[in-house]
Amino acid sequence: MIEYEEAESALVRPRESEVAGRRIAAYALPYSGEAGGVPYRFDPLERRLVGRRASGRVAVGPVDPAEWTRAFARCPAGPVLIGPASPVEEIRGAHLAAAEGAARGGRAAYLLDPCALPSPPGRAFVALFAWAPGAGAREERGLASALAAGIPAGGLLPIVPGWTDEPEFLEAYLARLSVAGARFAAPVPVSGDGDARRVLVEARARFDPGAADRFFERVHHSDWPASLNEGLRRFRAEAARRGLATLPPRPLGAGEPPDNSAAAARLEERAQEIEEDEHRAALLHAAARWIDESGRDLAPVVREGNFAKVFPFGALAAEAEAAFRAVRTA
Fold first, then answer.
1. pTM
2. In whole angstroms, what is the distance from residue 165 CA to residue 21 CA?
């Protein structure tokens, strides 16, 4: 049995991180507690499968969007991640309230596995549907609903060596997304820590027992980083063949200067292109954060030729300014 209880307040946590290559400044949990729904879900922040119990307690956030707006206001500027939703969302409505609260506060938001969708959406939202074993056609149904509501939507696939990186799996997964009309398909390399690997082995044995022994050997006795890199390369090549972007579009909150958001998005994209240069990629993400938190429209500063005087990352000044100028000419 699952017990749903009201949370004391809106659970919003500031967290400088990235999801599928896009910066987030905070994340919100409308439902806190791993119980109910599918047996596993994929957490793109922690980059791991999370097991869900058949019974337990779930704390449900407020249904008043104003409470979420106030909670988001205490976080740094920038897009936020909201979710996942819950099978009881249509009754409880906490995920929808969090999305509306973010939008009312001028925030852009990535909606993780949403059930109910905000309307009218504007450009404030992007829907992310994460693959998980045993979830069936949930992704396709979610994509259809989001796209019909005018919200850009696509899939997140955890790249698991020896499982989701195999050519047959990738071909079938990307074919389903393409048919469903997905705007993007983003790969997320899974964490390689001990507990994350243990859950992967457990999940594979549950849903594909015939592959369990071979998968165990791959997980525990292979070159994990090299396997992840090869899986990412294979995913991106197959997605490109199908015309699918491998980064979600960046949503635009009503409180954000559009050129700032678009330039930050270009820097995030550049960081993915050079991800093997970890130091420079980190600097590019830091530059995107600085743009988000600048508190003013930087396009006039660029036009006046003063951007390099205020931009704190000297080595990236020309690249960041070029991102703004590309936005103006796009």
1. 0.95
2. 19
> Beta strand 31-32 with 56-60: parallel, antiparallel or unpaired?
antiparallel
pLDDT tens, 125-168? Answer: 999 999 999 887 888 999 999 999 999 999 999 999 999 999 99
Residues 218 and 280 in one domain: no
CA–CA separation, 127 and 85 (whole Å): 12
Q: Are 18 and 24 in contact (CB under 8 A)?
A: yes
Q: Which of 214, 241, 268 is the last residue in one of the domains?
A: 241
d(CA 142, CA 1): 26
Taking CA 34 as the corner, what is the angle to CA 2 and CA 109, rounded to the nearest 5 degrees?
115
Q: How many angstroms separate the CA atoms of 112 and 117, rounded?
A: 11
Q: What is the CATH number of the domain that holds 90?
A: 3.20.20
In a domain, 252, yes or no: no
CB of 111 closer than 8 Å to CB of 83: yes
